């Protein structure tokens, strides 16, 4: 070697040099933050006064006051441009935090010039900077402090879409919110579709499950508004979401199913959803409804329930034999699963052509068992009542209701102390409806016990909830007044007279009529007649009778008016036309 060292010495010197450089780099790495903190302290500044003036000048140039922002716009722009373009992450964070505070306090439009540093910050290599600036942009867009067209023209959609791929939930939420807000502007529609939606749809078709997750999550956020749903449909997004239902990744399936659930809430989009051939959407949703993953199954049921508002979709669901998998869900141990299934089935029973099929499929037997379950929830009771009411309206349904223990389930639910008034209204309405059908009326009159009568009388006195009061009293009035029934009612005559007095004073004729029917049914019982005699209710009956007679007399004095050849709604100048 030219140095004159032997081979071994040269090798050792090279190793020494290598380790020395390594130690120096490590020392530099450790000392650098300490040095930075020392430099920031006024003790090491050239002049404490000049450092104070610099900080004051920077604070003044980044003022949050609207008027000061306008007065010092050029100075603010220069400072922000310098900070956002800096390679120092701390300086970028300072600029991003300024925009975040500005987005909270600004009450006037932000000049387009001050939007330029935002683009630099969106392109930062630091994720915290990107999250802060994207949140600032969301706030400014929500408050209409920035021109949405300007945001798109500056090319911010590209870094926003890159943030969606970041894997950070906050960054993804902020960027999706920005894209949705930008999509709501008619002038941006084409640009957002080309630069925002279509790249997401392309990403959704990827074979990489992670990329599919990101894309389906972002597409879900584009289905929360009418504008973005229509935009997604125009871009061909619906078939992509339906195809994602068939994927192997549970999260992708859940996100795409949730997106389709939001889309199906707009009935005008049903035709476009159904145009995806051969019942593909409904088949995919029914498959998901039978999934062992609860959140996927429940979301699929919700989506099918929303779609079932369409009669054509109901017909297609019945053609696909949807009842059996839904009945299987009614037997699961999970209350949430049972609630999802019974809610969808109650929607199907409201469609008249489905009723006979649903009865023959044994749905009422499953509902009867469901009502007898010890953990029967308000949701299950409400929708079970709807199913029983709908299916009992057909001749096959009445017999099935009696055989399926539905009546036992309803009467058992009536005694539950934890039901809300809304649930009780559905329950008593169902019982009242069943009491209008002779075979069911007889069966219920035999099955009812003193506990049921006590509960119904108590609910009839709920004057603060007129509908619940009416329904409960109507059930009592329709009981077959046998000797056994009268014995059950006797202990409650005083309480019954109290609510009957309220009914007779009600301005609503249906309450008055129900009161009269109940009194007429019970008057044959001597004990009731004794309590009625000379009491307040008898006085009200007499007053009501006198009013009715006076009304009848007045009506007799009025001759029926002969039909006029002139249309009464037409003005005089049109009579001869």
Automatic annotation (TrEMBL):
| Gene Ontology biological-process annotations | nucleus-vacuole junction assembly
PROSITE patterns xref list: ARM_REPEAT
- Ranges for the ARM repeats: 236-278
A molecular function annotated in GO for this UniProt entry is: protein-membrane adaptor activity
Per the record, membrane topology reads:
Lipid-anchor
Question: Is Mitochondrion among this UniProt entry's keywords?
Answer: no
One GO cellular component assignment for this chain's record is: vacuolar membrane
Ordered alphabetically, the record's keywords are: Lipoprotein, Membrane, Repeat, Vacuole
Compartments, as annotated in UniProt: Vacuole membrane
The cross-references to InterPro entries, in alphabetical order and at most eight, read: ARM-like, ARM-type_fold, Armadillo, Vac8
> SMART domains from the entry?
ARM
- Note whether DNA-binding occurs among the keywords: no
User: What Gene3D superfamilies does this protein's entry cite?
Assistant: Leucine-rich Repeat Variant
Pfam families attached to this UniProt entry:
Arm (PF00514)
Give the family per the record: Belongs to the beta-catenin family.
Recorded protein name is: Vacuolar protein 8
Look up and give the organism this protein is from: Gymnodraco acuticeps
């Amino acid at each position: 070697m030219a140095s004159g060292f032997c081979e071994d010495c040269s090798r050792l010197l090279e190793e020494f040099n290598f380790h020395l450089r390594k130690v120096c780099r490590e020392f530099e790495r450790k000392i650098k933050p300490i040095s930075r903190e020392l430099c920031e302290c006024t003790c090491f500044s050239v002049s404490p006064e000049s450092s104070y003036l610099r900080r004051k000048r920077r604070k003044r140039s980044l003022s949050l006051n609207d008027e000061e922002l306008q007065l010092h716009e050029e100075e603010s722009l220069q400072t922000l441009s310098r900070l956002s373009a800096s390679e120092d992450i701390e300086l970028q964070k300072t600029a991003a935090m300024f925009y975040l505070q500005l987005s909270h306090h600004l009450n006037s439009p932000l000049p387009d010039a001050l939007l330029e540093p935002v683009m630099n910050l969106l392109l930062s290599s630091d994720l915290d900077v990107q999250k802060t600036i994207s949140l600032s942009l969301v706030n400014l867009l929500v408050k209409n402090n920035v021109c949405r067209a300007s945001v798109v023209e500056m090319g911010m959609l590209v870094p926003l879409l890159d943030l969606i791929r970041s894997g950070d939930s906050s960054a993804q939420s902020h960027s999706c919110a920005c894209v949705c807000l930008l999509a709501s502007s008619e002038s941006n529609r084409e640009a957002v579709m080309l630069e925002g939606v279509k790249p997401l749809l392309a990403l959704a078709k990827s074979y990489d499950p992670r990329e599919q997750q990101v894309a389906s999550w972002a597409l879900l956020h584009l289905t929360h508004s009418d504008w973005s749903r229509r935009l997604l449909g125009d871009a061909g997004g619906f078939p992509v979401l339906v195809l994602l239902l068939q994927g192997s990744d549970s999260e992708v399936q859940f996100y795409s199913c949730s997106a389709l659930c939001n889309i199906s809430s707009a009935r005008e989009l049903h035709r476009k959803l159904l145009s995806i051939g051969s019942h593909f959407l409904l088949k995919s949703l029914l498959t998901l409804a039978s999934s062992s993953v609860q959140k996927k199954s429940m979301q699929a049921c919700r989506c099918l329930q929303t779609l079932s508002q369409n009669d054509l979709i109901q017909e297609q669901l019945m053609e696909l034999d949807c009842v059996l998998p839904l009945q299987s869900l009614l037997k699961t141990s999970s209350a949430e699963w049972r609630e999802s299934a019974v809610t969808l089935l109650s929607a199907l029973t409201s469609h008249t052509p489905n009723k006979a099929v649903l009865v023959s499929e044994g749905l009422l037997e499953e509902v009867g068992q469901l009502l007898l379950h010890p953990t029967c929830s308000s949701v299950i009771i409400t929708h079970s009542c709807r199913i029983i009411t709908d299916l009992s309206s057909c001749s096959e349904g009445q017999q099935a209701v009696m055989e399926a223990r539905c009546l036992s389930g309803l009467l058992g639910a009536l005694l539950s102390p934890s039901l809300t008034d809304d649930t009780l209204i559905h329950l008593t309405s169902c019982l009242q409806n069943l009491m209008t059908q002779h075979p069911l009326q007889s069966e219920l009159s035999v099955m009812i016990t003193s506990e049921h009568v006590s509960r119904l009388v108590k609910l009839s006195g709920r004057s603060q909830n007129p509908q619940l009061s009416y329904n409960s009293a109507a059930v009592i009035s329709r009981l077959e007044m046998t000797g056994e029934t009268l014995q059950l009612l006797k202990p409650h005559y005083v309480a019954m007279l109290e609510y009957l007095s309220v009914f007779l004073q009600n301005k609503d004729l249906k309450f008055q009529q129900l009161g009269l029917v109940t009194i007429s049914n019970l008057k044959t019982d001597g004990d009731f007649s004794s309590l009625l005699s000379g009491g307040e209710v008898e006085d009200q009956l007499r007053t009501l009778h006198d009013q009715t007679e006076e009304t009848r007399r007045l009506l007799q004095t009025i001759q029926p008016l002969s039909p006029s050849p002139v249309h009464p709604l037409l003005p005089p100048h049109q009579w001869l036309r």
